[in-house]
Amino acid sequence: MISERSIRWRMVVLFCITAGLLLGGSYAGLYAVFQRVISGQFDRRLSEIAQPIIADLAADPDDKDVDQLNIPDEYFEVLDTSGGVLQRSLNLHENLPVGTEPGFQTVHLPIIGEIRAAIVPFRAGENAWLFVAAASTREVTESLAALRRFALLLLPASLLLTAVVFGFYSNQLLARIDAVVGQLRQFVSDASHELRTPLAVLQGETELLLARSRTAEEYEEAARVMESELKKLTRIVDGLFTLSMADARQLQIAPEPLYLEEVLEESCGLALPLAKHKKIRIERDLQHDLLFNGDATFLRQLFLIFLDNAIKYSRSGSRIRVTLTKKDDIRVSFQDEGIGIANEHLPRIFERFFRVGPSTETQSGGLGLAIAMAIVQAHHGSIECKSEVGMGSIFTVRLPAA
User: Fold this and answer.
1) Where is the domain boundary, 136, 152, 168?
2) Model pTM score
3) Is the C or the N end of the chain the one with fewer CB within 10 Å?
4) Sign of torsion, CA 387 392 397 398?
5) Residue 263: which CATH number?
6) Which residues are CB-contacts of 114 (< 8 A; sequence separation ≥ 6)?
7) Which domain holds residue 73?
């Protein structure tokens, strides 16, 4: 099996090769563009230098001013159409090895080195002459060499920096992927475990019913058990569907203006029979006329999740306090006197199917709190939890104020 480190190094090497090719191609393209631009500027400079001298020669063909020119790194000749030298600048000790074709040529002289020459035809009176303006390409060559050195230094540095950055983030990416895959495996395992129990009960009841004839009372009792397990299956499947829609950011809520205290009152009324069965009081302190734009069905489900958990994990004869207030935001709190949650378990209580141990459930048992978090996030809110083992828990839903 390929280790995580091996995968990470392969990814880094592959990325560096790809980045190296892209950077090398980019630098080569930049160098080609820079070379073309600087060469074009050099040719234009030669043409600009030649123009006033040609104008002077055209005005006075007998003037020998070119023979007196002595400009460092700039060289001039006047040629006839056959290539014969008529005039030559003072600093040029040998004829330039250029042809008579108009345009630009690059030639090499033993002493001077590489030069670039512009050959411009012109007329001086009745004569057709060629004017040659040349200059050393040393500055252009040095500029291009400096750019090459810079690129050769920058390319390895860029690759090293890229490798370090990519290695760091690829490590985090692989860790996140591993965590997500682990969570997915755990989720599938937990979901299978949750579904296995009601399915096993349904299968057992069905086999017992088919094994022999039963009385009407036995059939009725078996039907009640099967109905209970089917409801449990339905709740699990509905919860999984809700969470899958939330994961895909497709949880469809239908927000509308509503008064939150009315939804809370209705939720408390629905939870009251279960609370009375355990002799638990539900005390309410609700701010009135608190308008909120939300989905009444999902909000009712949200409040019932907290009420159901509070009742389920509170001792008989205790109380549950529900409060609704508005300050900078809207806060709905559910305080119970239940078994509480240990601090080390608080970060995981909103995970799906999370349980503290094989026999003891936290208030996040099943999918309830995971669904609650999805509903709250769909309403752009958050959930806070404070708890002390043996003393109870306080869950606070914070929703944005209108």
Assistant:
1) 136
2) 0.51
3) N
4) negative
5) 3.30.565.10
6) 106, 107, 108, 136, 137, 138, 141
7) 64-136
pLDDT of residue 247: 67
Residue 45 has a pLDDT of 92
The whole-number pLDDT of residue 299 equals 93
Distances from the Cα of 35 to the Cαs of 30, 140, 142, 147, in angstroms? 8, 8, 11, 10
Residue 91, token pair as written in the block? 């600093």
Say which CATH number the domain at 105 has. Answer: 3.30.450
The residue among 117, 136, 155 that closes a domain is 136
State the residue for tokens 């029979």. Answer: 273
In 3D space, the residue among 9, 6, 16 whose CA is nearest the CA of residue 160 turns out to be: 16
For residue 85, being part of any structural domain is answered with yes
DSSP assignment of 191-242:
HHHHHHHHHHHHHHHHHHHHHS---HHHHHHHHHHHHHHHHHHHHHHHHHHH
Taking the CB of residue 116, how many other CB atoms lie within 10 A of it?
19
Split into its structural domains, the chain has a count of: 2
CA gap 109, 95 in Å, rounded: 9
Q: Is residue 113 part of a domain?
A: yes
Instruction: State the Cα–Cα distance between residues 135 and 133, nearest whole angstrom.
Output: 7
